[in-house]
Amino acid sequence: MEQIQEQVRTKTPEILVMEDETSLAKGLRMILEKEGYHVDTASTGHSAMDALRNKGFDLLVADLRLPDMDGMDIIREVREKRPETKTIVITGYPSVSSAVDAMKLGVTDYLPKPFWDDEFKKAVEKALKGGKELYLKQEPDISYARKDVWPHRRAEQVAREESPGRPSVLIMEDEPSLAQGLKMVLSKQGYDVDLADTGLRALGSLGKMHYDLLVADLRLPDMDGMEVIKFVKEASPETQVVVITGYATVPTAVDSMKLGALDYLPKPFTMDEFIGAVGKATKAREEAAPAVSVAPPETEEERLIQRREVLRVLDRTSQDLHFWRDLMQAGSEVLTDYHLSSEAKAAIVSGDLRWINENVGELTQKQLMFIYKRLEREAW
């Protein structure tokens, strides 16, 4: 048994290179074999499919233009039938649309030809180690102030409390006419929409409020929109992102999708395209898997963790009215990101002040606001 486990741990990765240009295929094979990988090659789509059916591969290196079929069809087949196989695209005909389509299918990288040997080796190494998540930094690049950057925020927050259940969207776009037009379109579709015309204002809003979706322009007057996307996916990974840009390029399309953007729309786009992308993003947010249930705490450490989590929830209710509204309307469904037992969730949702006092301790006036409001609603 130990020998079998050791063989699994030390198994050499198997790679299939699907490339119809013979000299390039041989060159890539030689590079990979020097790195210690086992490599097969396929010059057509059908021969690649035969190889994939007969042998398990850890990685597929896929050209998109093949003599007999579209390489994207093979990638779809692999993702459906062998989802554990990672994929890197290499293509001499790069385009924003094919880059976005490939990244949506789950490929870990998209390399326009010609590329350097080191670029290729780095992409292969990252794909085999896990892919997309390796591109996210551990800490956000930019700090943000928690002051209110929107003078009319208070009125908007009150309005949102009166319209529960509406998905919330932040549009980060510096062109006023486009921003207002997109806001008008989404408002008619039933979304709550805020605008930010700079990256810093977007960060300020994201620090104060919870949003289901960020619509992000990439070229802003004060900073790169990609930095805001990085911050969002690190601080609030459940928030979906749709990129809109008037300067569409293959590298930015690939990088934004690696960071977790759900779609990438080059300007100009039609309103139907925009509404469709937003609809898919909010649907993906709603379909996110719930967290695993947590057993009641038994040790002192577990009780301290639960106390901290309860206080985190109550602190957030005093700072984030989106969260307050969702917790009031949907109950424990919005607590899936917190390490809480079912009885702790029930106590928060029902406003069980006795349980909270016994298991958490005394609360501040701000922390008590949600509990009092919940008890008041129950009394009605």
- Total strand count, please? 10
- The tally of domains stands at 3
Fraction of helical residues: 40-55%
CATH topology of the largest domain: Rossmann fold
Q: N- to C-terminal separation?
A: 65 Å
Radius of gyration: 25 Å
The CATH homologous superfamily of the largest domain is named Response regulator
Element order: H for helix, E for strand: HEHEHEHEHEHHEHEHEHEHEHHHHHH
- Low-confidence regions: 3-9, 131-164
**Number of alpha- plus pi-helical segments:** 17
Structural class: alpha/beta
Measured by DSSP, the beta-strand proportion falls in: 5-15%
Oligomer: single chain
Can you tag this structure with a few keywords?
Rossmann fold, 17 helices, disordered N terminus, 13% strand, single chain, 5-stranded parallel β-sheet, 380 residues, alpha/beta, globular, 3 domains
Can you offer a commentary on this structure?
- This protein is α/β, with parallel strands linked by helices and 380 residues long.
- It folds into three domains: 2-132, Response regulator (Rossmann fold); 153-286, 3-Layer(aba) Sandwich (Rossmann fold); 300-379, no CATH class.
- The N and C termini lie far apart (65 Å).
- It has helices spanning 2-9, 22-34, 45-54, 71-81, 96-104, 117-129, 153-161, 176-188, 199-208, 225-235, 250-258, 271-286, 300-319, 321-330, 342-350, 353-359, 365-379, and strands at residues 14-18, 38-42, 59-63, 86-91, 109-112, 168-172, 192-196, 213-217, 240-245, 263-266.
- It has a five-stranded parallel β-sheet, with helices on both faces. It has a five-stranded parallel β-sheet with strand order 7-6-8-9-10, with helices on both faces.
- The model is unreliable at 3-9 and 131-164 (pLDDT under 50).
